[in-house]
Amino acid sequence: GERQVTVRRAGDVVIVSLAYHGVAGADPDKLAEDAIVDVLTNKPSGRLYKALVEKGIASEVSGTAYPMAEPGVMIFSAKVGKNGSAREVRDVMTATVESLGSTPISKEEIERWRAGFFRDYDLIVAETAKTGVVLSEFAAMGDWRLLFLTRDRVKLTTAADVARVARAYLKPSNR
Predict the structure, then answer these.
(1) N or C terminus of the chain: which is more exposed, having fewer CB within 10 Å?
(2) pLDDT recorded at residue 98
(3) Count of beta carbons in the 10 Å neighbourhood of residue 29
(4) Which of 121, 71, 124, 62 is nearest to 93 (CA)?
(5) pTM here?
């Protein structure tokens, strides 16, 4: 079930994060997780970006879905802006993230994620050192060939896949 932790320390920066259990890096649903992160945190079109940064209650949003051999986590974070409160940011973040599976995901959102993936992929394979590092990361997930399988799976991932994974993982009992 859901867990909440509050860490208080000296300083001016307030950060709110949500973490959800996710899938292993080799799982076909891993790409839907990556698309979820992009749909929510892309600057300036992401849903969290629009709900928090454009409204001035957060100064920055970020997210990641860690690719690991075992099931990992999806994490979404926001730096609270001068006009916002941690509670308000948490509430807006939670509502935005957990409604993703029940709101239509547009073809444009998926195409933007896909274009970003292939832009990054092309940059990686264009440089031998980067290719070696990424291949070792995929080997750590179970098999270096996952890099190429991932490339092929990105072409097949649909908005329906992303919505299905969002419904399955972005819920209070998984937070």
Answers:
(1) N
(2) 97
(3) 19
(4) 62
(5) 0.93
